[in-house]
Amino acid sequence: MDNTFSRLPVAMLIASTTLIVSQAWGSGYQIREQSARALGNAWAGAAAAAEDAGFMTYNPAAIGQLDGTQAMAGLAYLDATFKLHDGRAAAVTPMGAVSYGSSASGEGGESAWVPSLAAKTRLGDALDLGLAIHAPYGLSTEYDADWIGRYHAIETELEVLELQPTLNYRATDRLNLAVGLRAQYADATLSNAVDLGALGAGAGQLPPSAIGNADGKAEVTGDDWGYGYTLGVLFQATERTRLGLGYRSKIDLTLEGEVDFSADNAVGQQVLAGAQAGGQLRDGGGKADLTIPANLNLGVYHQLSDRLALMANAEWTEWSHFDELVVEFDDGTESRTTENWDNTWAISVGASYAVNRQWLLRAGLGVDETPVPSAEFRTPRVPDADRRWAALGATWMPNAHLGVTAGYLRVFGDDVEIDQDATPTNENARRGSLSGDYEVAADVFALSVDYRF
């Protein structure tokens, strides 16, 4: 028995906090549901449409396109499905590999509500001030406590709140330039099972039959504040065509976590007590420096006719900084996990059609790459996959001041493999191997109300 095992859950806290948000239906750990208007077009107009104050989260210069004082409140409901089929798992022990089961499945999808608020006002002839409060990242997932991959993950919950004060300068009648601050708070709770039966069998305390049959549990928490900035340009190229560019900087976090070990069965409690007496599996903590990546939104919006508008958007995210995770522990040691994520593009096209002065219909299609390069880097906390979007929406404007928008987005994820291999010396030594095929999909519903004073 080595000290690596006692530190493993803390490493999982730090690693999973960066990873788990991938199922927020943006690549990596992005949530894009800051505007129902943008969602109804599959975010095709995110950088250039500038239809309500919520668009400042995609391009801060969007507020320069909006007259006077405006406010927006939105709520999105995400219903995610990611299910493991034909799962196979095994423990690595001194006696060799011992199967945890095969042909098993596991459902980890959860639902979540994502709120957003935004407002802007004009400070004078050339300046606009805005504030957005939103959740750019987050996930809530939970597998059954006895599922086949329980030593990799059971519960994962991440909540992120971001405040974005924004200042826009109307350089000319056609050009808006903006800058904003991003102040972000992240809080995470994660849990996984610990195979105390395997630990006891490896130490000669228990028979091999105890492997997989005397579980404990590790629960970890962590939080931190991080800060970055956002820049934006919005250019009215012609009377009918608008170009937009929005940039969000990276944000550095140092997540500090606490780990708590427990067991609810007599055999597990005995093994846990012995391990803690020997200096193992003790409640403690760790920390890691993490980089939330920079990203860039490029968009075009074209009013083809009085009724029909066409739009497109391309979003690049710099995930390649996440090549490894280095976790520092309270005792001065460290752990490294290889990730090897790739940079990604998300591309979408959309259209809006004005039926009359009160009703605007929306539609959009998009594709979104996963940063996870292969099955060996895919985890049950992050069964991330390439995905496609199909969106519909409608905006009702009963008068010149009020707009109500509803949108629906269906996410079609590719079926993907997971292949977490375990050897006596790699990072899965105590979690075991896990392989199978993941089914990934989601439904997203969004509603927003915007008001012009």
TrEMBL record:
Record-linked Pfam families: Toluene_X (PF03349)
Compartments, as annotated in UniProt: Cell outer membrane
Gene Ontology, cellular component aspect: cell outer membrane
Keyword set, alphabetical order: Cell outer membrane, Membrane, Signal, Transmembrane, Transmembrane beta strand
Matching InterPro entries: OMPP1/FadL/TodX
Membrane-topology annotation of the record: Multi-pass membrane protein
Molecular function via GO: long-chain fatty acid transporting porin activity
Principal cellular location given in the protein's record: membrane
SUPFAM superfamilies: Porins
Family designation: Belongs to the OmpP1/FadL family.
Protein name: Long-chain fatty acid transport protein
Origin species: Halomonas cerina
